[in-house]
Amino acid sequence: MRTRSLIRKLECFSALSQAEKQWLEDATTDVREFERRQDIINEGDRPDHVHLLIEGWAGRYKVLPNGDRPIMAFLIPGDLCDVQVTLLTAMDHSIGALTRCKVAFIHRAAIGEIIGKSERLSRALWWATLVDEAILREWLVTVGHRPADQRLGHLICEMLLRAKAVGLSDDNSFELPLTQEELGDTMGMSTVHMNRTMMELRGQDLITSKDKRVTVHDLGRLMEFSQFNPNYLHQQGERS
Amino acid sequence: MRTRSLIRKLECFSALSQAEKQWLEDATTDVREFERRQDIINEGDRPDHVHLLIEGWAGRYKVLPNGDRPIMAFLIPGDLCDVQVTLLTAMDHSIGALTRCKVAFIHRAAIGEIIGKSERLSRALWWATLVDEAILREWLVTVGHRPADQRLGHLICEMLLRAKAVGLSDDNSFELPLTQEELGDTMGMSTVHMNRTMMELRGQDLITSKDKRVTVHDLGRLMEFSQFNPNYLHQQGERS
DNA sequence: CGCAAGATTGAAGTACGTCAATTCCAGTGG
DNA sequence: CCACTGGAATTGACGTACTTCAATCTTGCG
């Protein structure tokens, strides 16, 4: 079931019919694997299909003249990578695999077909892109206005909830398969400082992390510590 | 002509027919004024119309527990404020007038009608939201990974191009009707440092600013200085 | 003229970055 | 089974780009 995560996520918004689920599944024919650090799409590309992440983590990133590689978004199973290219001239950033990934390719035409067939699916897919945008706004706030410890705590809260939404969290723990360098590139801080911040959260007994798995001891406390308000994830279903 | 700016912007993407322009114009019946600092929409609201900015500047913002008011986006004439609420349960942020503003209200149903009538308009409107998202990504990069002087320079480059796209720029100058405090809230820096940074750009002879009007002496040089690459604004028309 | 908002300046503190080791650890080959 | 390796995590010392606080100056405006 290649679209299990996607469907699970979309159903946070609105229940889907059996037929609608099947249409999604049928659209994902071609599946490919990517190695860690391999690019899924590059800045400047104009792919004629959309990528659906099935397994693993990927990230949107740009490369700056000084060599920095800021990461602007994390993509986890169930996330569509590039609906935007359907309309934009070319990718303005790259998407790279942060772990070994399994990715389904959906042809542009197939997306168009689905949208034509189901108003509800169309709305659900658009909802997902709006949530991505809301996440981006929250990251902008975080990077610009919160101290390092809250930045990391906030990110952990968000990824725990997002992982939970697609069935990838084990109660209060989830896999965060990233290096501290990648986390630093994401939150706009140096690797060294990310390390010290991580150790501080552990020292405050807010989290445990071992073998790329993070356990949140008390989500309420971490949320409070990080000033995390989950409203921007819009996980409470469709507007009635 | 209430939709002049919007149409001008959309036509960066794709030419519109006379009928399509008229549909847009007809959809904007109700027009209201907002004072500087007045809120246009608040976090938690569920408006049943979309706001189109006709005159003035507005900003998306959140309020943090410590009183900070990070600004996450600037809205200028031609920008739609909240297409997202069409689908999301409630606003996850507020939109406030940064200057006295003129705002047209478009009922949700009218947007739906237009989208139904014209595939091209529907694509153009979606394109505009994708560009907004691309801007958000670039801001995230800027705030997280560029030093203060480049941050400000980058913002000025962007706003010059955006103003130009809707006919609000006079060659190499445009109106930037914001206080240094607001600019600081936007770029994640203190008012004092924003002031010093502004003076540095002036000292380097990159810009002049007087009476809220910024003049860019040599756009190429400022772009280079700020590592500004305009590709993310996607102003080169539709994918062929 | 007088006021208040905004811009500017100075001095002092700090959260962060940089550089350079060192330690840890999973994987690999012998 | 163990030594070897390279990537990642951790640590220490030091530098700096920024913040904060508190004036002061400027300017539009009633």
CATH C-level name of the largest domain in chain A: Mainly Beta
Look at the structure and give the mean pLDDT of chain A.
Answer: 94
Structural class of chain A: alpha+beta
Largest interface: A-B, 44 and 44 residues
Alpha-carbon distance between the termini of chain A? 30 Å
CATH topology of the largest domain in chain A: Jelly Rolls
Major sheet: arrangement of strands of chain A: 2-6-4-5
Kindly estimate the percentage of residues of chain A that lie in beta strands according to DSSP. Answer: 15-25%
Domain count of chain A, please report it: 2
Give the count of helical stretches of chain A: 8
Q: What helical percentage do the residues of chain A reach?
A: 40-55%
Supply the CATH architecture of the largest domain in chain A: Sandwich
Key descriptive features of the protein:
homodimer; 240 residues; alpha+beta; Jelly Rolls; Arc Repressor Mutant, subunit A; four-stranded antiparallel β-sheet; 11 strands; 42% helix; 20% strand; globular; DNA-binding
How would you characterize the overall build of this protein?
2 copies of one chain form a homodimer. Chain A has 240 residues and is an alpha+beta fold. Chain A folds into 2 domains: 4-124, Jelly Rolls, CATH 2.60.120; 130-233, Winged helix-like DNA-binding domain superfamily/Winged helix DNA-binding domain (Arc Repressor Mutant, subunit A). Chain A contains 8 helices and 11 strands. Chain A has helices at 4-10, 18-27, 108-117, 119-145, 148-165, 180-187, 191-203, 219-225, and strands at 30-34, 39-41, 49-55, 58-61, 71-75, 94-97, 101-107, 169-170, 173-175, 207-210, 213-216. In chain A, the strands form 3 sheets. The first copy, chain A, has a 4-stranded antiparallel β-sheet with strand order 2-6-4-5. A 4-stranded antiparallel β-sheet of chain A has the order 8-9-11-10. In chain A, a hairpin with a 2-residue loop joins strand 10 (207-210) and strand 11 (213-216). In chain A, helix 6 crosses helix 7. Chain A is globular. In chain A, 44% of the residues are buried. Chain A binds a DNA duplex (30 and 30 nucleotides) through residues 147-148, 179-181, 189-193, 195-196, 198-199.
